[in-house]
Amino acid sequence: MSASTAPRRPGPTPTPVSQPFWDAAAAGTLTLQHCGRCDAVVFYPRHRCPRCWAEALAWRPASGRGTVATYTVVHKPGHPAFAPDTPYVVALIDLAEGPRMLSAVVGCEPGQVRIGMPVRVRFTAGADHPLPLFEPEEEP
Amino acid sequence: MSAALVGIGELPNVRRSEGATTLGTLADVAAEAVADAGLSPADVDGLLVGPQVGETPQHVPATVAEYLGLQPTVSNVVDLGGATGCGMVWRAAAAIAAGMCETVLCVLGNTREGDPPRSPNRNPIREFDVPFGASGANTSYALIAQRHMHDYGTTRDQLAHAVVAQRQNAQHNELAVFHGRPLTVDDVLSAPPVVEPLGLLDVVMPCAGGAAVVVTSADRAAAAGRPVVTLAGAGEKVTHRAIAFAPDLTAGPLADAIHHAYRQAGVGPEDLGLLSLYDCYSIMLAVTVEDAGLCAKGQGGRWLAERDLTWRGSLPLNPHGGQLSCGQADLAGGMSHVVEAVRQLRGEAGSRQVGGRPLALVTGNGATMSEATALVLRGEDR
After folding, report:
1. What kind and span of H or E run contains B167?
2. Strand order across the beta sheet in which A41-42 lies
3. Any chain A CB within 8 A of the CB of B238?
4. pTM, entire model
5. How do residues A104-139 score in pLDDT, each as one tens digit?
6. Strands of B52-208, DSSP E
7. Does the beta-carbon distance from B132 to A133 stay under 8 Å?
8. Cα separation of A40 and A36, whole Å?
9. Are residues A91 and A55 in the same domain?
10. Interface ipTM
11. Domains, chain B, ranges and CATH?
12. How many whole angstroms separate alpha carbon B323 and alpha carbon B10?
């Protein structure tokens, strides 16, 4: 499928609540909400804390580090716009701050991804809506 | 709960339904179920329907009631994905027990023409899953399967055994989209990968079709002169919507729902004679037999592989073939597990009739192992 005929890739659909997350993403920073009452770290962005229902949620930069909780190598995507990317890796990332988020693992061959693998956030460059993707953490 | 499942209807599963309308499909399967119950439309005073995304966004019960010429005293949408069919059955029983109605039509159907519409919405799934290439349910169940295999050593081969056994069952079910197309374990293992570790034959085939059940009071059911199937217990739980927020990647809310149903029925897994378990993906069967207490946590793959799961076995699994062999007519796919359990418990399943105790566990599972409903159904002693 050529780029000219591929359907438009579905970008994020920010809401007034989630807009700060995407604004920070555009600036290359992964941010998470922290609850001022119960100290929960919250993802995805909420209007109220999903644990204690407080409204006192504040944005803080995250470390961008996490580990792969599980993953799949996608050969037949659910949305046709992703067909040119196959095979690609969708994964659940356990962020160092606690929350789990769905993302993609890039920067390595799909066959190299493992459960428990340390990863670090890398934002897609040049896209309309930069996305927080993850790549293998370099060995120290 | 003293309610009985007295009528069933099920349409053939087909890949395309050009010219059929959703409301017309619901009318077809409703007529079959009400006739099977030996009742007439005028006897129906309760109506449970599913959502109709993109077609009838609001006022679904009124639209369906009007179309069917019903004036129900209880009507509602049940919106629990694959758990909708099971969820309808206990809600019907509860409405009857509350004195709100006596006979409830639970009806689901799906049409399928061309590509489904993609509607814009502001759901968190759309914002935080879809942009990463994770549209639809496939990726979620692949993530579950990968973790189950990692944590417990579950193998594709074990899951394939269950898929093949169900396909053998489906050779006795002319309503199944894969009737006449048996499979081998090698076929399942060598099928094209869709979302590793799941291949094409680990994933349900979307279909058009319909399924319906009529639930009525025990008194009315006894008067009908047919083998009576009663609702002995039910359980339900919803824990999340997107897979990232599942409390556990290898066990679902079905565990709590099933054990609630066991307690209501006063039974345990050792009492069951039939398993009618929701199978959108092969991995769901392994998770569900664990959640049902049929084996220890993590042993679901082995349990499936070591048994005769066909209708001939001592504890048959999905004798109609399951959705993996029947096809999934959207929410009607979940209801097919209720319909098959009633058919079997009545002793009306023909060449795939199971033996054993007339006690069935039926499960429904929606979204990303998010929405769970379980029923224990009891037939008359044979």
Report:
1. helix B156-170
2. A41-42, A31-35, A57-61
3. no
4. 0.93
5. 999 999 999 999 999 999 999 767 789 999 999 976
6. 74-77, 103-110, 193-196, 198-199
7. yes
8. 8
9. no
10. 0.92
11. 3-115+207-228 (3.40.47.10), 136-203+232-377 (3.40.47.10)
12. 13
